[in-house]
Amino acid sequence: MSSIRVIISCCHTGPNPAPGLGLARSLKAGYPDSFLVGKDHSTQASGLHTEFFDEVWVARPWGELHLVDHRAQIIARLEELDGYYLPGSDLEARWLAEESHPRILIPGIDIFRRTAKPFEKVAEILPVRVPAFIGLDAGDREVYNFAVDHGWKVWAKGPVMDAYRVFNWTGIQQARHSLAACWGQQSFFLQKHITGTEVMLAFAAYQGHLLGTAVVDKRLVTSEGKCWSGEITTASPELLNAVALLVRELHWTGGGELELVKDEAGILWLIDWNYRFPAWIHGATIGGINLPALLIAAASGVQPVPPRCASRQFTRVVLEIPVLSSIPLPAPPPAARSTNVPSKLSASNPSGLPALMQRLFGPEGREATSQHSDRPARVARVDSAFAQAIREHVGPSLQTPARVFLPKIAEVGFRQAQAAAAMDLPVRLTPTYSVKTNPDRRLLVMARAHGLRAEVISTGEARWARELGFSLGETIYNGPVPLNPAELDGEELSAVFADSLESFHGLCDRGPGVAKTVGMRLNAFDTGSRFGLRLGSAYRFGIVANAIRDRLPRGVRFGVHSHLQSSVTGVAEWLAQARAFVEMASSLEFASGRPIQMLDLGGGWTSESFGPFLRDHLPGLVAHVHRRLPHVEDVVIEPGKAVCEQSHVLVSRILEIRRTDWIREVVADACLAEMPLAGYFPREVYLLTAGGNLHRLVDGFDRILGRVCMEHDILAGGLNIPPDAEVGDWLVFSHAGAYEASMRYTFGVGGFHE
Amino acid sequence: MNNGLVMKCVGNNGHGGASPRAAIEQAIVKLDGLRPTVIESHPGRCCLLAREWFCAQSRAHHEVSGLPAPWLRERWMWGPQHHPDYWCEVVERTTIDCSALAALTCESLRAIGEPVATVQMIEHFDPSTVQNWAHYWREHGGAYWLSGSTSYHVAVAVRALGSPGIRIWNPTVECFSEQRPLAGYGSIAAVRMLVDADSGLAPGGAFAWRGLHLRANDWNIVSL
Ligand SMILES: [Zn+2]
A452 exposed, middle or buried (CB, 10 Å; 0-12, 13-18, 19+)? Predict the structure, then answer.
């Protein structure tokens, strides 16, 4: 028998292949007379049926195995063969590392712990950065704000593997649910997405000595982003030295892969780290770098056939091959079998690896943290001003559910807007309060007291604002409802923006006197928004430019408006969109010959992002507007949510406390009718006990259910409800002062009196 | 036996017996007179509005997606067209050729203040591909841009950030040409960058690309 004998696991090759077949082909290239055993956990593992394996070993799927006995089987077979074992999955390597064996060529167990995601420790050695991240247990509002700050270009990631790209709060909740289903009560995190070119670096090391590296430059990828064809290149000397240092530091044995992204500035970001050779490893062998053979040579002392570079480029192919008669395919699955399994692994791998993941890390796993009752609740800091406000307003006499106004907290946002208007800017800044967000009298009075103007979307709102002291001359009217000036007793508005060309024509036809500034809302650039005039074709652009030139009455100022919610796009994207809007406006000014004198940038900031926006981005943006549109006299911003979302809290009481398997659920006397946007964004949730203790609820898996019999009436999740919570205690939901207030409805409380 | 398809056997270079270099030189002689597209303007407001819209879109796209913005290829398909081009016509077309697309790309980059130059290329394919293109263009001037197994193509040169040379952006297939092959099917055989002395892209009448030192405003054979 050959002197080189290797057991290779994970031999399935599909659109998301395991590395087993590539390892076998590379070892056969390096050691043509080697004896290779292909091991997997299903006869469906397609690579087992190829000619590269001298023997196949089909074990039961991971979910059916006695794990301790299976480890003994592997070691017995290794000793019988006097060979080596190369696992093809991180999970199997992780499992095997718990009791190491010199002939299993994998990193030691401590390496898995020292290099745990999100890899901050690794990045201290490698010349790479780790994208910003936040633990999913940091508090829902903090997690949400992190996502907003990064423009919703974020991934929810598990502790070892599994990553979900998420685009909104619902996505984060779904990802958290899927991760918890697989991994139990582990730490998950949200990480910034990095845009750039992928750099995949494979390496082989033996006892801390780096044996070789190869980098693939992907040319064609599958829908899952897996390499289908590529070119083999070499790592930069800097990266090479750093990998050598890291491997030495960690005393690494086995294959490995770093998944990096190089951004436009040339910075390398570490995205993932694999503890085994990648599936494209034979592509490197084709390119003249046989890393598996280098590893076996280092372990055995037997030198391989020197590699030959057949081509720096490689491609995968799809081949039909005969199934081995000794390991026939199983029966087809029942037609109705659900494929709704929460892991990406499951769809592509017939060996049942998710079961190993659950057995190692899941709710039942040895590595899982202990059950609910033993788990200490993470203590979140409660802002003292907030605590004082709550204690002032919440007490036994409060009829719940109740929306409670917190004037001192409400004032914060208005003061920020007032301070911004007083900044020394090249153009006057006019903050306007978006009345629709919450037309509460107290908020409008406060807005006026802080010098804000009113922004309205109907004549009804305009009259309401006038009643509370805003003259129409300091009120801005926005569509989509075309303005009927007769409803405002012919009084002149500060500005009116048409949402359509038809509406713009109508305003122009009325001549001067409707508003000092007549303008149009432009469709947010390239977003598919339903609002505003579209300038996506030269034809439309020409029509709009000609309408401004030919129809806008002389003596009326011209303005443009665009609106995107910063909380949806994130600040960076919002700024880019604002600058794109300025460019379109600039060309419209040139083509129409009418100077733009008012520029309305809309609103949509969260209360947390508004202050930093005003401080860090607004002055630069206003200066940019002044450069590109030198006739602009007023830059308008329309904060709504930013100034009022924290003005109210919703106070509810616990009606019932339920314990299910390992989480706790409470039923509150509030429901979606009082918090209609519960599923769309998170708020801070507090528990005020009868004894006066105020806890902020974070870091857990418990839920607060609404009082009505609707499936989606879930007010909050991801909480840890402390054991001392009792029926009758108060639950306080923050951020209940914006659309939560203005869009509330009556539901589930009895009949109507017509 | 040679039906015009690429054969895998060693020695067949798809040039019908001529050496690759001779075939490229032959192509240069034939294609030398081709000039890059210039999009013209009518005297009225039609072309002024069309061009202003195009520049506004270019600047706005640049703000939201950086460089090079993918909007051109999303808007215009590649295919044969009649020349000459006027601004008010080109913005209404759905299909334009590589030369018009390169002209739009140049205009788009100039709109954001990027130095840019037209790069004419000769690319190597095979007789079957070239024959098919000749048919496709039969009603649009025929094979004036084809020679043997090679074709004429137009791309644009932009600054290579962080290094002294240039990069060649191929707007038709939306890729930089630095990693394209220099031999075999679809390879780049020759390049000619048309550049003004003051553009800064070719100081002293020469420029660096892929480690090669090339003459500006002149054909350079780069084929391996
Ligand atoms: Zn024209």
Answer: buried
Separation between Cα atoms, residue A173 and residue A342, nearest integer Å: 13
Close Cβ partners of A430 (under 8 Å, ≥ 6 residues apart): A421, A453, A634, A635, A636, A637
Residues in Cβ contact with A629 at an 8 Å cutoff, skipping those fewer than 6 apart: A582, A585, A586, A589, A596, A599
CB contact under 8 A, A266 and B162: yes
Buried/exposed A671-704: b ≥16 CB within 10 Å, e otherwise: bbbbbbbbbebbbbbbbbbeeeebbbbbbbbbbb
Please tell me which residue of chain A has the smallest CA distance to B67: A264
Mutation for A interface: B45, B52, B65, B185, most A CBs within 10 A: B52
Contact between B60 and A526 using a beta-carbon 8 Å cutoff: yes
Q: Is A177 helix (H, G, I), strand (E, B) or coil?
A: helix
The answer to whether A701 and A718 have CB atoms below 8 angstroms apart is: yes
Q: Find the mean pLDDT for residues A608-628.
A: 96
Query: Which residue of B41, B64, B65, B179 is the best one to mutate when testing the A interface, meaning the one whose CB has the most A CBs within 10 A?
Result: B64
State the burial class of residue B8 (Cβ atoms within 10 Å of its Cβ: 0-12, 13-18, 19+).
exposed
> Looking at the complex, does the CB of residue A528 fall below 8 Å from at least one CB of chain B?
no
**For residues A362 and A180, what is the distance between their CA atoms, to the nearest angstrom?**
8
Give the distance (Å) from ligand 1 centre to CA of residue B44: 7
Q: How far apart are CA B101 and CA A645, in angstroms?
A: 49
Q: How many CB contacts within 8 angstroms connect chain A with chain B? A: 67
| Chain-chain contact of B52 with A583 (C-beta, under 8 angstroms) | no
DSSP 8-state class, residue A63? G
Nearest CA of chain B to the CA of A326: how many Å?
Answer: 38
A16 class by beta-carbon count within 10 Å (0-12 exposed, 13-18 middle, 19+ buried): middle
Q: Which helix (H) or strand (E) holds A255?
A: strand A254-262
The full set of domains in chain A, from first to last, is: 5-119+195-303 (3.30.470.20), 373-404+647-742 (2.40.37.10), 407-643 (3.20.20.10)
Q: ipTM score of the complex?
A: 0.90
Best of B63, B87, B92, B93 to disrupt the A interface by mutation (most A CBs within 10 Å)?
B63
Taking the Cβ of residue A537 and every Cβ of chain B, the question of whether any pair is shorter than 8 Å is answered with yes
Q: Using DSSP, state whether B181 is helix, strand or coil.
A: coil
DSSP assignment letter at A533? B
- Give pTM, 2 decimals: 0.88
**Per-residue pLDDT reduced to its tens digit, B143-172:** 899 999 999 999 999 988 877 789 999 999
**A221: Cβ–Cβ under 8 A, 6 or more apart, which residues?**
A227, A228
Residues A133-174 pLDDT 10s? 999 888 889 999 999 999 999 999 987 777 899 999 999 989
Q: What does the H/E/C string look like for A715-731?
A: EEEEECCCCCCCCCCEE
Closest residue of chain A to B53, computed from CA coordinates: A538
